[in-house]
Write a structure and sequence with these properties.
Elements: H1 3-27, E1 30-37, H2 43-51, E2 59-62, H3 69-72, H4 78-81, E3 89-94, H5 103-107, H6 112-131, E4 135-142, H7 145-157, H8 167-174, H9 176-190, E5 197-201, H10 205-219
Parallel strand pairs: 1-3, 1-4, 2-3, 4-5
Helix pairs in contact: 1-10, 2-10
Length: 257
Amino acid sequence: MKRKDYEKALRELQVELCVLQAWVKEKGLRVIVVFEGRDAAGKGGTIKAITERVSPRVFRVVALPAPSDREKSQLYMQRYLEHAPAAGEIVIFDRSWYNRAGVEKVMGFCSKAQYRRFLEVCPEFERYIVDDGILLIKFWLEVSDEEQKKRFEARIEDPLRQWKLSPTDLASRSKWYEYSKARDTMLEATDTDFAPWYIVPSDDKERARLNCIHHLLGLIDYKKVPREKVKLPGRSSKGAYDDRASLKGRRFVASKF
């Protein structure tokens, strides 16, 4: 996809996200959007495309670190529920409670009993969320073996991407089929009518972002909220003085560019 075409389409979708934002605030809606997928599937880039032109007070991104010792002793879902949306909020989970069905299962970070229990309880947990009036949307970004390999290699070479590479990422390359089986089992257990999974092919990052945003907008029934015409007020001359000259002698950033 040509960059110019991508940027034009993205801007149009981002305008619609701003329209959606106003509607969510006006109606006090509560929305959860879950992003899952293999490492390097493009979750971060898609979330950035969604959120870069909207208010962080409405679109709130949650990317939790590994649980603390205290959190490990709590109910598994507890730390995620703490971030559930209030009225007028869209909460985006960059990875979610589905860690247990993916990385925790594959890497042995949870017991078999904990894993089985999660698959049993998860639909009940999501039913509770939906029955409370929250709109729950779940996206799975699906990247191919070849494309994931390319992206990992780019992370190794590019200093701007090296921070994205973790020991878990490297381990995930050798456990491709274990992750595939975990994905299939997860979808079988948790793809429900009230909280379905939507699969986003993500080898083409630009198209994946556009398709994902377009689909997200189509899942929420929203309308344009009328806005009062804004008029910029003139500057008052009361108390006028040379406010630029008063900065003389202060520390300025050097003009290097």
